[in-house]
Write a structure and sequence with these properties.
Helices cover 20% and strands 34% of the residues. It is of the alpha+beta class.
Length: 76
């Protein structure tokens, strides 16, 4: 199980996450910030839980590239 968390409020709209993991992220046309697709929001944190292990590698690349360090990935 892969758990991805995004602190969307702190996003600066650099687009790295979308370039590296387009299956998980896209940019909002409304405010220019990253959107974690298929996620649930709770207190400003957007979380996606996926049994698909194939998203792990690209998600880690997106986490490492994020200049404001607002993406967290866990493998449980």
């Amino acid at each position: 199980m892969i758990v991805i968390t995004l602190q969307r409020k702190k996003c600066i709209g650099c687009n790295y996450c979308v370039e590296l993991a387009p299956a998980q992220f896209q940019m909002s046309k409304k405010d220019g910030k990253s959107v974690l697709l298929h996620s649930l929001e709770k207190k400003g944190f957007y979380t996606l839980k996926s049994p698909d292990e194939t998203i792990y590698e690209n998600s880690i690349k997106a986490k490492k590239a994020c200049p404001v360090k607002i993406i967290d990935i866990k493998q449980i």
